[in-house]
Amino acid sequence: MKNLIRLAASLVVVLILLLCSAAFSQESDVELPEEPAAAEEAGPEALEGADIIIGLEPAAEEVPAVEVPLPSYVTVSDLPNDDGTGIVVEFEKAEGETEALTYTVSVGAGPDGPWQEVGSFPATKKWKEEAGHYYPAFFWFQKGRAGVSNNIHLFTIQNLSGNVPLETGVEYFVKLTASLDGANRDYPEILSATPEEQWFDTGRTNVLILAVLFGATVLYFIARARRDPNLFIRKISGLDAVDEAIGRATEMGKPILYLNGMSSLADLSTLAALNILGRVARRVANYESKLTVPCRDPIVLTVAQEIVKAGYTDAGRPDAYNADDIFFLTEDQFSYAAAVCGIMMRDKPAANFFMGYYYAEALILTETGASTGAIQIAGTDASTQLPFFVTTCDYTLIGEELYAASAYLSREPLVLGSLKGQDMAKVFMMVMIIIGTLLMTFGVVFIKDLFKALG
Amino acid sequence: MTHLGIILLQNNGLLPWQEAMGTFFTEGGMIVVGTWIAAGLTLFMFSFVYKDNPFFRFGEHLYLGISAGYLMSLYFFNNMKPKFFYPLMPFLDASGDSTLNLWVIIPGILGLFIIFRLIPGWGWLSRITFAFYIGGFTGISFPKVLNGLLLPQFYATMQSIPWQVNSLDSAVLLLNSLVLFVGALSVLVYFFFSMEHRGFIGGVSRVGIYTLMIAFGASFGYTIMARISLLIGRMQFLMFDWIGDEIVARIGSLFHGG
């Protein structure tokens, strides 16, 4: 074990040394000759031909024909990392390019046209170095590096005029025209390319690496949780309040209201809410209280019915289960909120649970619940609604605490292992944030770009 | 009969009540009626501020019933019809744009499995649908969450710390960077569940929860402003669309001595 730690430590040291050396080598690249200095070296000859000589009338000469610069080479190819609906025009920055120069790209079905103009851009824009998504390696390893400047123009064609998308497998011909001060000049060659789809989007390589890394960690901890279901999770304040609230409702002879949130079953917070519902249902069945679960989503309704039924059965009270207590209201957000408020005012539940994902109706629900004097426990990962829950509820499970509560209560290896795996992912994030911030502070910037979402 | 014939001739073949209803059902008439209904229902819902009452209950049940029925028809016409029935039976599509697509039978069967819950003994089939639904969505959302949430936050958190302070702006910049760095790390520690929050870890997590509470406070104020604007919108509807600009102006002039 010690040897492994030593090996890991030495690898980290080597990595840091490499990165530092890369940083210093980049700094040396910056020392490039500056243009003003070059102008000074050129001396007074550089002013020859300028028409700013005071006291003399400018010579009445014929205006010379504008020479429109053209790039030395142009290539047209399939757009990489796409779904087969794009081609790309690529060319090196032309000599003498200025802001006034404009490039126009036209597409035709054949080498002789007819041509459709698909885009026009000034020579100061559209750089491969800034392309990101379609050219990740170019972006990750060149953007922001000292001494590297924009040098290659890149124009992506994904639609013809009239927003007609390009078709996969069809050959398209491209004409490039440069314009300066009203004069136009076509690139002498007409080039073509055929859009093709790619199976792997290299712009998302960082997502793949993180997904594999986090996925493997979670799978490892799920396997560990299966062997040892007593993996340590710290106690979550607020969970004791669940039993307290159910006990209080039983003493008062009033029902318990449980909401699973406004989202569908595809949302993780809804799944966590349903997990906690199972635990609440068992407790309610033990105490012989009444549990009301109004649902917004019909699929969540059916799952909630199953879970509550299982909870009552586990508690040995299947006869006490009433399917009508778990019911569908409506999918409309505010009419659902109005109906739940009505239930709170009429049934006066002693405990309200707001678990899952919520939107703008959160404050309406919890304010009404607070006005009835009910003990309120909330748990959500909706960051915009958390402030309202914190201010109006007695206990709030903040963000991931909702998932942790679900794991803590159920002790199911799947949920427990996922939580432990996520904890390890957080350690990785913390370490990377510290390393990344330090390297950024010392001028090594490409480490940050490795974490850029390009897709 | 003769009298009726004269009336019909005078009113372009319409009886007086038909003429009145015709006026009523013009676009302008419907707008007036719609505004009165909307204003009335708004006041019914606002009455909940006082306490639960029959007016609120009427509004609540009407709202609930209409929304449930409306959404069901919306699902049928926007989803079931174009995405299931037309691909299965293209001859039903009058526009002729639909083509036969037998693949939709699979989601159709999965949907039927949920309806089987109503038949005792067949309910277990719905679990296949739920497993497909949850598994599919989890698979789709995993890379999306990484790409759309995790990486951008990672990217934004990694910032260089500008140590050189030579002006007020640079001092603020340094403070900003430090708050971001310390705040992000301490919040991550707060959400670390594999260790007890005691000692040093406890201290850092306490900083984390303070950071969260400050962020919630800012978010609270910001959202309340948005809610107030919703209230203002409703008040403007009542005052200008329902009561009317002119009457509001006259009431206003009473207070301003105009």
Topology diagram in text:
The complex is a heterodimer of chains A (455) and B (258).
Chain A: H1 2-29, H2 35-42, E1 74-78, E2 87-92, E3 102-108, E4 115-122, H3 136-142, E5 152-157, E6 159-160, E7 164-165, E8 172-180, E9 183-186, E10 191-193, H4 205-227, H5 240-252, E11 256-259, H6 268-287, E12 291-295, H7 298-314, E13 326-328, H8 333-347, E14 351-355, H9 362-371, E15 375-380, H10 386-392, E16 395-398, H11 401-410, H12 413-441, H13 446-449
Helix pairs in contact in A: 4-12, 5-6, 6-7, 6-11, 8-9, 11-12
Chain B: H1 2-10, H2 16-24, H3 27-46, H4 54-88, H5 105-115, H6 126-157, H7 168-190, H8 199-243, H9 245-255
At CATH level 2, the architecture of the domain at 231-410 in chain A is 3-Layer(aba) Sandwich
CATH fold descriptor of the domain at 231-410 in chain A: Rossmann fold
Number of strands of chain A: 16
Overall pLDDT of chain B, averaged?
84
Number of helices of chain A: 13
The largest β sheet of chain B comes out as: none
Portion of residues within helices of chain A:
40-55%
CATH class annotation of the domain at 231-410 in chain A: Alpha Beta
Task: Pick out the low-confidence regions of chain A.
Answer: 20-60
Supply the helix-strand structural class of chain B: mainly alpha
What is the CA-CA span between the terminal residues of chain A? 39 Å
Global Rg of chain A: 33 Å
* Low-confidence regions of chain B: none
Spatial strand sequence of the major β-sheet of chain A:
13-12-11-14-15-16
Task: Name a few traits of the molecule.
heterodimer; A: 455 residues; alpha/beta; Immunoglobulin-like; Rossmann fold; 6-stranded parallel β-sheet; 5-stranded antiparallel β-sheet; 16 strands; elongated; B: 258 residues; mainly alpha; 9 helices; extended
